[in-house]
Amino acid sequence: MMKRSSFPVATGLYVNYLLFGMFNIMLASHMSFLTEHLHTDQAGISLLVSAMGFGRLFTLYISGVLSDRYGRKPFIVVAGLLMAVFLVGIPLSPSFEMAIVLAVLAGVANSFLDSGTYPALIEAFPQSSGSATVLVRGFISIGAAFLPLMIIFFMNHDIFYGFSFFLPALIFALNAIYLFRMKFPDMRVQSPKEPVGDTSVSSVEQAGKLEANDRSKPRFWQEGLCLILLGFTGPTLLYIVQLWLPTFGQQFIGMTESESLRLLVYYNVGSLISVFVLVIVLRKWVKPVHIILIYPCISLLAFGALLLFKSGAAAIICASVIGFSISGVLQLTLTVMSEFFSQRKGQITGFVYTATSLSYTIIPVFTGFLLKHSQISSVFMLAIIVNVLGIVLAMFVNFRYSLVFPASRKLSPKIVLEPK
């Protein structure tokens, strides 16, 4: 049951991630402008991206812990303001060194945004948390698709490129003020799987017997560690596809540059379709824990077909299926982690996204090394290996889920959860 009182807050949270979709590709989309403005080269811009990654990596865990202690709102509001500072500062930065400092602050802002938003959405919609969190992926995709159109418009009208930074910055700042005035959901709201409140003596006794006989306790070093590792494997597949799919199309299949770039379009279309499908099926038919196993199985088949069938038509189909089956897995991994460890949502967000940041730090170097000493197919063989690892991890998580949340818990009385 989704609480209508949470919709105003959720609207602001999703607006942040629509803007983040632009923010996430802002530097890469302005490569030529920034190299000239900051008197650097493409390697220098890559260093800025790395600085953002390091800022995020080294603050994710602590921001998650502090989010559990002090609440979600302060971190989300500060994140929006820091994002605005970065977006205004980069086009006006007097030096490359200043841009590096701003990039680190942007990474900190990213960690604050993740550590506050995902727990807030789970707390706002405790019975629809899978749908609520997976929508984040959809808004990121929309923002990423809109930014190039805005840049082209400004270029065609000879408008200073910095306005494509300034406009999202303004909306970030206004949205931070809006969220500051909003009332956030109670952090103490319990998971729907946790019976609370007054019930009849018989139902309490029945629930107690079920708890004693059927239910296992969550174990961080088992399913918790597996879910953290899924926070590494899922983003690894995302990174490999987004960075190397056009190169794969050119070198392995023989596509032209424009044809290979269109593969990313099909990938993103599949990703957006997946978000809408997940929002529907997660509400009635499938649990998030099942999706994190089903989707990697689908993507494994698609990666295999991509390597097996060397044709443009097959590549288009496989790119669409990969986009469909990768999208939302990271968000649902976080949702499942929150089900197991509902009292530490901010902290476990930090754990999962620290693994994600490690993926974005390590995989670029490793795949670059592979490509330097081998062919592009070796990079996608790595994707298959990582995909198989993700399936094994998800299988164990599903097994543990069946023990911690057995089907017999459905006998427990249905209780409407509202924050007090």
UniProtKB/TrEMBL annotation:
Main localization, broad class: membrane
Keyword entries, A-Z: Membrane, Transmembrane, Transmembrane helix, Transport
Transmembrane portions of the chain: 12-31, 43-62, 74-92, 98-122, 134-154, 160-180, 225-245, 265-282, 289-308, 314-336, 348-370, 376-399
Superkingdom of the organism of origin: Bacteria
GO cellular component: plasma membrane
Entry annotated with the keyword S-adenosyl-L-methionine: no
GO terms of molecular function: transmembrane transporter activity
A Pfam family reported for this protein in Swiss-Prot or TrEMBL: MFS_1
Membrane topology field: Multi-pass membrane protein
Family recorded in the similarity comment: Belongs to the major facilitator superfamily.
Protein's name in the database: MFS transporter
